[in-house]
């Protein structure tokens, strides 16, 4: 579904990703963990075309999308729920969801709206409410729901648990698991909450200073003493 090979990305003279290679197979949940500043969000944005990589190749469903404009990448079955949610705060929940559906048009809007509201019932209660007045958890549900309105084959999730209470974190991760189980949606998940992410994921990668340093199944990475020491202290809380 997604393959990165030798991808290097920089902001001016600052190299953020160095020779990154990873794969996400159809139907998998793959997580990328790492500390703040490791390059996780840069990797997500590079997949989406901004910034473009200095070198390397990005393939989606066998098609080379390296350096392709973002709007064309998004029309190829990829959706991105970015770090910080980035909903439209002055628009209502319904209007935000309509923005997510623009890629497809109106033909399947009602069906997709019902699907998103079934996954996140709180959004159904808030359809007429402005996005900026929602709680943090509700805004995260809206960001994911907006991404799902385009019927993606690959969902990029960047820090979905950021700033949320533990109960809401569990709800968000349960929704991701349910989507993957029932629809086969492929997910690339970037997370600082390594405990939840590795328990959810089929496979994972560890990113340190812009480089992939480890990979394995979620269970294998959870069992590694070096991963536990670096990322899992207090993770259960």
UniProtKB/TrEMBL annotation:
Protein name per UniProt: ABC transporter ATP-binding protein
Recorded family membership: Belongs to the ABC transporter superfamily.
UniProt keyword terms in alphabetical order: Amino-acid transport, ATP-binding, Nucleotide-binding, Transport
Molecular function via GO: ATP binding; ATP hydrolysis activity; branched-chain amino acid transmembrane transporter activity
UniProt domain ABC transporter: residue ranges: 2-234
Any Gene Ontology biological process: L-amino acid transport
């Amino acid at each position: 579904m997604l393959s990165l090979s030798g991808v290097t990305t920089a902001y001016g003279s600052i190299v953020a990703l160095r020779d990154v290679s990873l794969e996400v197979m159809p139907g998998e949940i793959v997580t990328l963990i790492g500390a703040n500043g490791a390059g996780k969000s840069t990797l997500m944005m590079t997949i989406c075309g901004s910034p473009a990589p200095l070198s390397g190749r990005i393939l989606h469903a066998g098609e080379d999308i390296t350096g392709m404009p973002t709007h064309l990448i998004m029309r190829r079955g990829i959706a991105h729920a970015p770090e910080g949610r980035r909903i439209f705060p002055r628009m209502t929940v319904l209007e935000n969801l309509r923005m997510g559906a623009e890629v497809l048009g109106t033909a399947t809007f009602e069906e997709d709206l019902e699907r998103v509201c079934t996954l996140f019932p709180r959004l159904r209660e808030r359809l007429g409410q402005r996005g900026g007045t929602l709680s943090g958890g509700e805004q995260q549900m809206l960001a994911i729901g907006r991404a799902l309105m385009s019927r993606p084959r690959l969902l990029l999730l960047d820090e979905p648990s950021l700033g949320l209470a533990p109960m809401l974190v569990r709800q968000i991760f349960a929704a991701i698991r349910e989507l993957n189980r029932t629809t086969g949606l492929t997910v690339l998940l970037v997370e600082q909450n390594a405990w939840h992410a590795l328990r959810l994921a089929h496979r994972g990668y560890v990113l340190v200073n812009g480089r992939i340093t480890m990979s394995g199944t979620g269970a294998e990475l959870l069992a590694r003493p070096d991963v536990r020491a670096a990322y899992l202290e207090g993770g259960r809380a």
